[in-house]
Amino acid sequence: MSRTLTVHEAGLAVADPRAYADEERLHDALSLLRRESPVHRVEAPGYNPFWVITKHADVMEVERDNKLFLSAPRTLLSTAEVDELQRQQREQGMELRTLVHMDDPQHRVVRAIGADWFRPKAMRAMQERIDELARQYVDRMVELGGECDFVRQVAVHYPLYVILSLLGLPESDFPRMLKLTQELFGGQDEELRRGESAQEQMAALFDFFDYFNALTTARRREPTGDLASAIANARVDGEPLSDVDTASYYVIIATAGHDTTSATIAGGLHALIENPDQLRRLKDDPSLLPLATDEMIRWVTPVKEFMRTASADTEIRGVPIAEGEAVLLSYPSANRDEDVFTDPFRFDVGRDPNKHLAFGFGVHYCLGAALARMEIQALYRELLPRLDSIELAGTPRWTATTFVGGLKHLPVRYTLG
Predict the structure, then answer these.
(1) Do 167 and 253 meet the contact criterion of CB atoms below 8 Å apart?
(2) Membrane-spanning residues where (predicted)?
(3) Which member of 97, 109, 185, 238 has the lowest number of beta carbons within 10 Å of its beta carbon?
(4) For residues 316 and 321, what is the distance between their CA atoms, to the nearest angstrom?
């Protein structure tokens, strides 16, 4: 397919949500850019211009130099219309400001608020609960009678329960959180989005804010020893976080904390179905599970991009980047870079080393990386010994997105012991 794709068309694909729902098209485009234009200027209709960075080494270089390349003000790829809405919200003090939007020194201070909840000691304390939930969802697959949509009936719920339990949210609110997350991350997908206009899509974010503002008030009045209480009562330089920054902290934990993991769990199962030799290999040698988990993460790469803005004139791979210009870091491309990964389009449950960048790199390395790995391993540690057979029962479908996503439907037929 790439033989008929021009470099210009490949660049446009990076800004097309539909390309991320068509893996062949996406990777043809990214492979072409890596070969012929690894630092490529994109001027896509409806978007402000940007440079797309497709090589693993260059993505690492940009992430490493967080003083030259800033997260603000253009953190994610959005349409020019959304960019303008966000500019207006920034002026009004109503802009979403999560950890991924912040730069140092603010980023370092705010990140520390939740860091202890994701350290190894805290993760070990959660292991029993995560293992219990993994058993429940594999048992649920048995109850479903040997056929299910693995995404909708298993993968989206299991990590949701983990992260919202960590926050301390009531189980009765979990369905609402799932719907809001899907609307927020699925704003470019016809099936998942709330509406077609930018205003309608931003409404999901404001619904999050309303919910979490009420939660902040409750936790400040009566702390309950959970992560939500730690965020609500955190102080920076002796002052509590603003309502917007507090709500933003909840949003990034509640959304990124489960949507990315569910995408990896579902995409990992699809990869095992499509590569039965690797499924047999993993079943025969469970000690490979940690390596297989990172291969699933590399293979799916649920976070598709972050953007950085140059704070001074510079260059990448000899290409001049002017102060104020934005660069898009393409993680799916970096994670299939032929210079780093041997046979990168082969799914290999024993891949070692595996220098994927799916969790980012540098100061913005994913806060919940250890938790995500623990959840994925727990589910497959429970599922694989009980799995006698599995096959597709329909056509898998991916989310149209340029930010976070993966499979939105995975119909499977299986026998479980």
Answers:
(1) yes
(2) none
(3) 238
(4) 7
- In the chain, the N- to C-terminal Cα span, in Å, equals 42
Which strand ranges, in their side-by-side order, compose the sheet holding 387-392?
147-149, 411-416, 387-392
pLDDT tens-digit profile of 214-234? 999 999 999 999 999 999 999
For residue range 310-346, list pLDDT tens digits in order. 999 999 999 999 999 999 999 999 999 999 999 999 9
Q: DSSP letter at 65?
A: -
335, 359 Cβ separation under 8 angstroms: no
Degrees, nearest 5: CA angle 52-54-56 = 140
Backbone angles phi, psi at 223, to 5 degrees: -60, 145
List for the chain the helix, strand, coil content (%; round to 5).
55, 15, 30
Does residue 105 have a cis peptide bond before it, meaning omega lies within 30 degrees of 0? yes
Q: Which residue, 383, 372, 380, is CA-closest to 349?
A: 380
List residues bridging with 42 in a β-sheet: 50
Residues 137-169 pLDDT 10s: 999 999 999 999 999 999 999 999 999 999 999
Domains, the chain: 2-416 (1.10.630.10)
How many Cβ atoms are within 10 Å of 244's Cβ, its own excluded? 17
Q: Yes or no: say if 332 and 358 are a contact pair by the CB < 8 Å rule.
A: no
Q: Is the peptide bond before 73 cis (omega within 30 degrees of 0)?
A: yes
What are the distances in angstroms from CA 59 to CA 212, 270, 334?
Answer: 34, 27, 7
Residue 26 near residue 2, CB atoms below 8 Å: no
The CA–CA distances, whole Å, from 210 to 113, 206, 214, 244 equal: 22, 6, 6, 10
Q: What's the token pair of residue 288?
A: 């490979």
